[in-house]
Amino acid sequence: MPIDAAKALAAAPRTGEITWSPKDVLLYHLGIGAGRPATDPAELRYTLESRLHVLPSFATVAGAGSPGVISALSMPGVDVDLARVLHAGQSLTPHRPLPAAGTATATDRITAVYDKGEAALLVLRTDVADTEGPLWTGEARIHVRGEGGWGGDRGPATRREPPAGPPGLTVERPVREDQALLYRLCGDWNPLHADPEFARRAGFRQPVLHGLCTYGITLKAVVDTLLGGDVTRVRGYTARFAGVVYPGETLRLRMWRGEREIRVSAGAVERDDAPVLADTVVRLA
Fold this sequence. Notes:
By secondary structure, the chain is an alpha+beta fold. 19% of the residues lie in helices and 34% in strands. The protein has helices spanning 5-10, 22-31, 41-47, 68-71, 179-183, 196-201, 211-226, and strands at residues 14-20, 85-94, 102-115, 119-130, 133-145, 169-174, 234-241, 250-257, 261-268, 274-284. It has a ten-stranded antiparallel beta sheet with strand order 1-3-4-5-2-7-10-9-8-6. A hairpin with a 3-residue loop joins strand 8 and strand 9 (261-268). It starts with a helix and ends with a strand.
């Protein structure tokens, strides 16, 4: 079996240094659609270095290294075809506000390998700290088609009951046709997001938007509309990637605000609100 669960779980953590600058933060913000309108003061906090606020989801690309879905595939015990791989979900816990520039140590390790029958699910945890202490913890869940069925643990149920009642707020966010081409400059070079032939081999009619780009677009919408632009209010963010977004589509985001969290669902308007993010929760300070 290309995935050796015992070997992957027993492997020593992999540690490396990452560094980033305001230029990296600005590029990430543009990659998730910031800067429209370009002179809007609410957008300039994402696009002008003199007043830069760092959206917590920047942590998923900080250092411009391989994102979790790619990093996991180079861990011991994992040898799979990239065309069979999908990012299934992402969680992020910022331990303090992210600085606009920094150098930190990132430690990766696979913490679980689940047997989903027709697929395997890998869980990659990343802990990042600098000289002042922990910065953030991320957890990527990676779905590998055709690698399940060995009789392993299926893992815990992670799906939540849908929010009760109608959403308190619904907004739409258009996705540029070239959004994936721009976002991939943040470090995710998977050809699924740019090469039509590779996308067809992976089972899609055309290149798809990065799940983490949708993840960032959604968090920005929540911060801008319900949190007054205050990025420091975000204490945790998790989402399951329920479907793909094609560049050029429009995201419809429905939000339910609670006392300590905001629930969100995201769908593609042009495909009758086909779900793209589910079980999405923003935890608040």
